[in-house]
Amino acid sequence: MKGIKVGEKISKYPIIQGGMGVGVSMHRLAGTVAKEGGIGVISTADIGYQEENFNKNPMEANKAAIKKEISLARKIAGENGIIGANIMVALNNYAEIVKECVKQKIDLIISGAGIPKDLPEYVKNSKTKIAPIVSSLRCCKLIVKHWKSKYNYTPDMIIIEGPEAGGHLGFKEDELNKEENKLENITTQVVEYIKEVEKETKTEIPVIAAGGIWDAKDIKKFLKLGASGVQMATRFVATEECDASDEFKQAYINAKQEDVKIVKSPVGMPGRAIYNNFIKQTEQTKSKIEKCYKCIKTCDVTKTPYCITKALINAVEGNMNKALVFCGSNVYKIKEVVSVHNLMKELTCEI
User: Fold this and answer.
1) Which residue among 2, 268, 277, 314 sits deepest, i.e. has the most Cβ atoms within 10 Å of its Cβ?
2) Are strands 270-274 and 15-17 parallel, antiparallel or unpaired?
3) What percentage of the chain reaches a pLDDT higher than 70?
4) pLDDT at residue 95 greater than cutoff 80
5) How far apart are CA 314 and CA 333, in angstroms?
6) Own/partner pairs, 124-129, CB within 8 angstroms, 24+ separation
């Protein structure tokens, strides 16, 4: 079994813990995953929600929290642990957030929810590696060609996120069940293309499969298809070290298959979430938005049914009556909270 190479470091296992915001994957989860041999990922989406000045100055609060969370994660992970940051392109202050993570010497930046066209510009003269999230071969080719022509830069990693993922999705709702969009099919196509890029550029580019991956058998399947590893998020929520509230974890344990729905996010993208009473209410009545945190470029505060930042903060803090709870398609299979150590052991037992 081979780990995943990120710069001068190599993880023990070919597993990346997906970034989950707001506040679900912070230093405790990311640091522990890295300590246990995976790649731990901090979500930067409104990461400063616990800072005193968050309501007055969200950007400064977020930057302060990035510094704090990366430092704390490293203390848990140890010298050789790999810590990454998930940064959405759709963030209003995307460039500033990326630059702050680079300043704090993050090992890896994973970037989706849009096309990270200028990401190589922000990591110049640093050791930080960058990985775009793609949902198709077309998107992968677009990024690779653009980065190569404009920056003479080849992606350090490619992450393919399929239609079974949690949270915001890179597909329109009517595309989710199409055969050509199955993760297995996209992975096969991207792996073949990246092999050509590797030969041409004489570089190694790990391809990572993500979205709906559940157990060791799934991991083995994607490794056989040529992927270098997998990214998993939902399973890491139901761990003792996950930074979310016990109520959030319990919502995962209680979820049934029929509770998992594709919902229209306030920022205009389809997303997979637990279809709870809060979501049902917002489909009928627009909530009063008392404060705009200017988090996402595509959010129109005059039209949005509720504030996504507030709904996600409610979720992570356990206020489930007013919470948006993102999840992957297999959330209903979760029955208990376990330690990251035991989960990693289970996920790697058959590889």
Assistant:
1) 314
2) unpaired
3) 97
4) yes
5) 24
6) 126/102, 127/7, 127/8, 128/101, 128/102, 129/6, 129/7, 129/156, 129/157
The secondary structure of 137-182 as a DSSP string is HHHHHHHHHHHHHHH----S-EEEE-TT-SEE-SS-GGGTT-GGGS
Structure confidence by residue, pLDDT tens digits, 283-316: 887 767 777 667 777 767 777 778 888 899 999 9
Residue 337 bridge partners (DSSP)? none
Q: Work out the burial of residue 210: count CB atoms within 10 Å of its CB; fewer than 13 is exposed, 13-18 middle, 19 or more buried.
A: buried
Angle, vertex CA 327, rays to CA 19 and CA 188, nearest 5: 70
Show me where the domains of the chain are located.
5-244+333-347, 246-331
Going across the sheet that includes 270-274, the strands are 167-168, 270-274, 260-264
pLDDT score of 225 more than 80: yes
**Class of domain 5-244+333-347 (CATH, top level):** alpha beta
Q: What is the DSSP string of 250-298?
A: HHHHH--GGGEEEEE-TTS-EEEEE--HHHHHHHHSPPP-------BTT
Q: How far apart are CA 49 and CA 23, in angstroms?
A: 8
**Overall average pLDDT of the 108-122 stretch:** 95
What is the DSSP secondary structure assignment for residue 18, as one 8-state letter? P
Using CA atoms in the order 34, 64, 269, 309, what is the torsion angle rounded to 10 degrees? 110
State the pTM of this model: 0.94
Tokens, residue 162 = 């399929």
Q: What angle do CA 20, 22, 113 make, to 5 degrees?
A: 60
Please state, in angstroms and rounded to a whole number, the distance separating the CA atoms of residues 190 and 134.
10
Which of 299, 302, 326 shows the shortest CA–CA distance to 312? 326
Tokens of 139: 């998107």
